[in-house]
Amino acid sequence: MSHNEPELDRLEAALRAVRPAPPPAAFVARLRQAAPAPAPAAPPAPSSQPVLRWGTGVSPWVWLGRLLIPATAVVVAGVMAWRWHPAHLPAETGTLRADNVQINQDLVSTFDTVEPLPNGEPVRYRCREWMDTVVVRDSRKGLEVARRVPRIEVIPVRFEAY
Amino acid sequence: MGCHVPALLLFARQQTRGEADAQDLVQEALVECWGGRPDSAPPAAARVYATIRRRAADWGRSQDRRTRREAAACEGVEDGWFDGGVEERERNRMLQEAIGELPGDCREVLTLKTWGGLTFAEIAQALGIPANTAASRYRYGLEHLRQVLRRQNRLEMLKG
Hints:
Chain A is of the alpha+beta class. Helix content of chain A is about 30%, strand content about 30%.
């Protein structure tokens, strides 16, 4: 079989001369409806350096606002940063600035007790009495504040656990 | 893309059993290929043909029974594959029958090459085959079509 045979060439040309049937009108209309809408023109990319131009039909008040709003924001941000900087905070004489905190837990006593449940089953409770001590120091002012809080820890223990 | 629609529809008609299915297939393939392109640039024709083919295979698996039933109901009222007036009606019917006798893989390549206007490289891309295979299938399909037409004594009729 040779593709260069004249008869095949003529057949090929004859086939090319036959056109596919055009699509029905209803189908074309349906395709047009389903086709994606052309993409809207992309808005111009905002320039990082806005160009200010007078006399382009924009009110001077609008231009003034455009200039003042960012300038005001910058000034306010600067003032707040300066105001809240630790070096500029007013000295707080009455407050404690802790630079050393200690928490101690001292076991004061331990004892066991037995109490029955409503169903009569006895339950053993292991009780521990703690003394929590919190010590806060302000070495700059030479202050030390200590607070002692008693705490009781109760652990139920069943007899079967022994 | 509009100029490709007749060939796309012809290809889809060969892949399906009903005109309605063929139209749905073309529409869905175009929407799928166009959907991912926000710039609305027309998709490559080879990609649309490949999508039609893939979707037709999916349809064939999922809707085989339904399509067969509808095709039987619509038999004889389907649109022809080719364009022409009253004079060409017999020639077109004969050509459609002859193409229908071709093996499916040869028919695909012949259609894409002759009426889709694709190159062998594009056909290879659309069908997922090597370009050499596409070329050999085209030659085989052409030869097979000639034999069918000659057997029916209709070769001269096509050549006009």
